[in-house]
Design the sequence.
């Protein structure tokens, strides 16, 4: 039961039922604030509903993060696996892929982990706060072009088109480009001003659990790498899929991370996109500081392993199970799961 | 296994594992739009990340709704149960209660339903769209006072206070008032302009499933009652917890709903809060039109049954399992579950 094909990592068809002990959720990291001085409004809350006045002044919670867990009846790892999404995204990234395959949430449940999927501060079920009253600036809304040509590296500059028939993509691209609209459904607005609130909430999550393995994507990487520095007694491993940032070795000492294995995983086309050309050196510098400090850190360049064509959306690409299996093998080698 | 105590409806402690066939998610109802004419911005995406220009103009998807499902290995109902939250809330309402008990998602999974929890357009994992470019107005952020004194009927007018020790609440209140901050964590911004987009997405969800039972809360009620009118061949029952609105019998003919049982469930303190005094008559009018049309409709006033003290947050109150059992019994009487 719950078999994993060792060659592809794919959960086999005809899987036995997942034995689930509990499904639930909670929020961490928020605090109450009071808004004052804003004018009254009038509204109708629902069709055929009554008109009633709205006073926007008063107390609300901000800075909270949402965490949903699925706990197994008999987990095969002592440490829950925390899945932390990237910027402008939510925990949905880890669920069903845009082309309808099981995502990494299910992969790692079937592999034997209790899995915690979070929506970080400002997005998804974490909610967000008024601006400019609480957040100092307006959010950014991801455009399809930015996602396609820059962040997710589906195609080169100028290759996005609103008409699917006229879109171009990198040769051998592993992202299911025909499902771009389904992927766009997952985009959520983001701010550029909430890193401190977000780190605080992630640290609160780590503090709530006895131990955990942190698996991050993109913007989540910097939060995960810092979370390990902030709680080296609780974080048992950090797996960073294409982190867009990392701690600065001039400011943070990696010595405390000895005994906490780190894995960095990178896809294809990185040299063809300015954002990644500019972002990667800071991450590499942190990786090298980990190595210099004697930390068990590994840098996996997937194309160098013969796994070509992966986009930035490694967990959504058509070989997402293969990438997950690379991660799972790395964890098995470190006895993080039986 | 998966035993339900028939007197309280509570899942018993020491439950056998839930036998889960699949956990996943999808979006429905969205469409692509193009934004033009907006000025460029500059941003840093992550700490230690590179500065890069942002062009907010381009394509994005709006109007999508998020749906997460948990499917059982052996469901005991032929119809999945859809849980539709109220205004200013998300699907989180149906998960763990603010005081940490299993919510209705788990209750109805253990009762034998495949359960689909959605985040409607504009909130949670459904994302939201720029205003005033797409949505014509700014959102409303729920304040603690509005929730406490008006919508959720925790206490009378003037009873909210930022200091928990100074808050007052209705005598015999069933909401776990000591956990108000945890409940506030669940609040999300809402708009007053998205009813048509939201109904479209709910109708798309109904259309994607062969059949379903729709269980709604508050603002979700009007959408559920209309969804049944829009697809009477697919909706097998509507359960509306304290709907804040309902269709207008002068505009919609309830005759098509014969054969689709309807349940309305109401808590306590309704006559003490102006919003509910003003909202309830429109719902009662629709209920009476259902009865007149020969629809199997039931109106349950919980205090009249001896179940006193329930707030508007019926699924979060300390007797939430008892209320769920009332709903489950009603479904069993109608052979909606074996």
Sequence:
């Amino acid at each position: 039961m719950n078999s994993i094909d060792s060659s592809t990592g794919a959960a086999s068809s005809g899987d036995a039922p997942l034995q689930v002990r509990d499904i639930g959720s909670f929020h961490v990291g928020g605090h109450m604030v009071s808004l004052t001085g804003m004018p009254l409004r009038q509204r109708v809350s629902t069709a055929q509903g009554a008109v009633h006045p709205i006073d926007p002044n008063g107390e609300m919670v901000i800075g909270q993060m949402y965490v949903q867990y699925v706990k197994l009846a008999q987990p095969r790892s002592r440490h829950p696996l925390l899945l932390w999404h990237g910027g402008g995204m939510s925990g949905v990234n880890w669920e069903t892929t845009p082309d309808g395959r099981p995502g990494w949430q299910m992969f790692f449940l079937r592999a034997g982990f209790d899995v915690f999927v979070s929506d970080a501060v400002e997005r998804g079920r974490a909610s967000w706060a008024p601006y400019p009253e609480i957040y100092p600036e307006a959010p950014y809304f991801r455009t399809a072009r930015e996602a396609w040509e820059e962040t997710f590296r589906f195609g080169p500059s100028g290759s996005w088109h609103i008409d699917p028939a006229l879109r171009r993509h990198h040769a051998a691209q592993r992202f299911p480009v025909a499902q771009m609209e389904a992927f766009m459904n997952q985009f959520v607005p983001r701010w550029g001003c909430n890193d401190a609130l977000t780190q605080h909430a992630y640290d609160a999550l780590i503090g709530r659990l006895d131990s955990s393995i942190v698996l991050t994507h993109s913007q989540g990487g910097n939060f995960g790498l810092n979370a390990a520095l902030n709680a080296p007694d609780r974080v048992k491993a950090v797996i960073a899929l294409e982190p867009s940032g990392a701690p600065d070795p001039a400011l943070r000492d990696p010595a405390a991370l000895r005994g906490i294995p780190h894995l960095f995983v990178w896809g294809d086309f990185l040299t063809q996109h300015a954002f990644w050309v500019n972002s990667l050196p800071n991450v590499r510098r942190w990786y090298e500081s980990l190595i210099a400090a004697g930390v068990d850190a590994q840098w996996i360049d997937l194309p160098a392993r013969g796994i070509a064509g992966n986009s930035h959306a490694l967990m959504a690409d058509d070989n997402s199970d293969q990438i997950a299996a690379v991660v799972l093998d790395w964890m098995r080698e470190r006895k993080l799961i039986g």
About this structure: The longest helix of chain B spans residues 274-292. Residues 20-30+63-137+184-333 of chain B form a domain with the Rossmann fold fold (CATH 3.40.50.1820). Chain B touches chain A through 91 residues (CB under 8 Å).
